[in-house]
UniProtKB/TrEMBL annotation:
Official protein name in the record: Cytochrome P450 4c3
Organism: Acropora cervicornis
InterPro entries named in the record: Cyt_P450_sf (IPR036396)
Signal peptide: none
GO function term, MF aspect, one: heme binding
Amino acid sequence: MLKQVLKWANDYTLEGFYCLWLGPGHPYLLTFKPELAEVILNSSKHTTKSADYWFLIPWLGTGGLSLF
């Protein structure tokens, strides 16, 4: 799977991102351009945190992640 993900990253170099679906209803946006990540992270359109976010809090804490 890693080989395929890296191939897609190479295929979408100019766009700087692509969406990887892991199962039904689980899209992951993969971006590799800082300016695109900034736009996504500064957006207030989607403020609900996913289950993945809550799963990581015990290990990462809340220092680098916003709860609200």
